[in-house]
Amino acid sequence: MPAVTVDDLTVLDRLRTPGLGDQPRPVWGITTAPQGYEGEGFPVRRAFAGIDMAQLDPFIMMDQMGEVEYAPGEPKGTSWHPHRGFETVTYIIDGTFDHQDSHGGGGTITNGDTQWMTAGSGLLHIEAPPEWMVQQGGLFHGIQLWVNLPRDAKMSDPRYQDIRSGEVQLLSSADAGALVRVIAGTVDGHAGPGATYTPMALVHASIEPGARLELPWDVDFNALVYVLNGSGTVGVDARPIRMGQSAVLGAGDYLTIAADGSQESRSPKLDVIVVGGRPIREPLAWAGPFVMNSKSEVLQAYEDFQKGRFGHIPA
After folding, report:
1. Which residues, 6+ apart, have CB-to-CB distance to 7 below 8 Å?
2. Is residue 192 assigned to a domain?
3. 205 close to 1: Cβ distance less than 8 angstroms
């Protein structure tokens, strides 16, 4: 897993250990992601399927894309499609993905890079592996997170953030047994590079076998843990959790994730995505690529798309 890493974790700033009076976040529930296909046929796990939308707020959904080893000719992406009313966050762990949109945003992301696209008032975009990867195949693995926008930002101008792996804030757990990558938001006073409309944090953590991560977390945020690979436990009551499962946590000052002492050779560490944000608590009308506050706004989005108001596919 070549997402940005560090050979010696002891050189990094360390997260503080929970203090007297700090409350651990309880585990409210664990779900298993169903598997399917997206776009032109790349495999995904619907990480948050089955979780109540009130517990996800301000997030809409998250897909784990892959992990898959493509043979030559197999890599796939999406065709041109519209979005309005939210943000897509694409984080590539292994492999390479190209992005292009109708407002001039785009670029190529690879191991540890992130594309943060604010669809806002609406755009067209496409995501696909580069031609050389289609021809030769290779490993592909990443996530795409959908972040809702509050009502007053849904029709904001589209924007695009290209976050390189070298910009990600790197921290270690107190015992240097876990590498914590802060992609967006602030964790224990350390800020990641991603700029967000909705206050939130996005973290990718790699936990060594037998190690424990006690992660300080903003008390105003909800908290969700998704296991990319490996096995371990979550919460102070050590609820078992494994690859493809999500945990919803309740209120508190920090969350606890521990890696089992023995991991499979293909995934020698426990890798998790931790995400949380301040709930927006507004009405939600979601239909396909449009996330709005009412049915009439969704219908208007479809009309605007059909009439070409989202821009045009670049030549």
Report:
1. none
2. yes
3. no
Question: Is the CB of residue 304 less than 8 Å from the CB of residue 122?
Answer: yes
Cβ atoms 87, 197 nearer than 8 A? yes
Model-level pTM?
Answer: 0.95
CA distance 229 to 207: 11
Q: Which domain holds residue 221?
A: 21-305
Q: Left, alpha or beta for 235 (phi > 0: left; psi -120 to 50: alpha)?
A: left
Number of domains comprising the chain: 1
Binding-site members are 81, 83, 125, 127
Q: Is the peptide bond before 130 cis (omega within 30 degrees of 0)?
A: no
pLDDT in tens, 48-64: 999 999 999 999 999 99
Tell me the CATH number at 200. Answer: 2.60.120.10
Detail the residues annotated as belonging to a binding site for Fe cation. Answer: 81, 83, 125, 127
